[in-house]
């Protein structure tokens, strides 16, 4: 499967190619705010140069000095840095909490063997119940998944739930999130399988339940992150500080006639101010996009792909790639590898270069 890489992951290109990207880039996030800064900045600059008399220019220059003097009193770099650190840590923890059914599937394949239809159906049903917990949680927290699976009927049509399971789910009258209910079905079916002797030993049932509880705990962590967000007042402080800085720069960074003697250039375009605003505004926009990674932004988690991937892996691991499809063990390849070593293309190239270098030395 050929997946398109997201921007920022492949840094093997040149510096220019990195800056040329648009999807998920700094320019895409900040170009509106940058335009809203440059247009008033240019209008104020033109008014100062063309429309004001000497007395009005003197008053305007006092305003510019006042704004420039108190512009750095806001510890914006500290506020933004601390805020982005919190958001990035939270974002990574949510990434690591994404549930993966692979370990549970491998454990079930170990302790519930068999290539008959009943064994395959049992393994697949257990794994589908496990995956259904992730589907229900993703519907609760992700806009993209909710737009795809708007109702339980859509979940049934997508193959994540059976019609009987949907009726049982709807029959439960409760005002709490019931994403854990398929895990309860899993436990009942596992106990019945153990009573019928479908599980090799009781320790295997314990390991299977342990992996199920780990999967359920990750679903609970994702739901908790969606339930408890960053305090609104902190987000307001950071946003207000950043936009106040940008507004103050409209006046404080104007090039006036009686300005600093160290800078004699009449800068019509505030290059370094633009870069500073891009960096500050970029950090703010990064935090705004990372605070909810379940949306439809460029860098958000693709939970729809994750659900499709889990369904395909479950189907392969429980019904298709069973023990009768396991390749036979062969000793010939191991003996060859033990005698000559594994020859990767890179290793072979190095050996060839080494031999050519030794031959040159011998000729000398």
Automatic annotation (TrEMBL):
Q: Does the keyword Ion transport apply?
A: yes
Please state where this protein is localized: Cell membrane; Membrane
Q: How does it sit in the membrane?
A: Multi-pass membrane protein
Lineage of the source organism? Eukaryota, Metazoa, Ecdysozoa, Arthropoda, Crustacea
Q: Its family? A: Belongs to the anion channel-forming bestrophin (TC 1.A.46) family. Calcium-sensitive chloride channel subfamily.
Q: According to the lineage, what is the superkingdom?
A: Eukaryota
**Function of the protein:** Forms chloride channels.
Which Pfam families does this UniProt record tie to the protein? Bestrophin
Coarse class of the primary localization is membrane
Record field: transmembrane? 70-92, 232-251, 263-283
Name this polypeptide is given:
Bestrophin homolog
* Naturally occurring in which organism (per UniProt): Daphnia magna
Keyword annotations for this protein, in alphabetical order, are:
Cell membrane, Chloride, Chloride channel, Ion channel, Ion transport, Membrane, Transmembrane, Transmembrane helix, Transport
Presence of keyword Cell membrane: yes
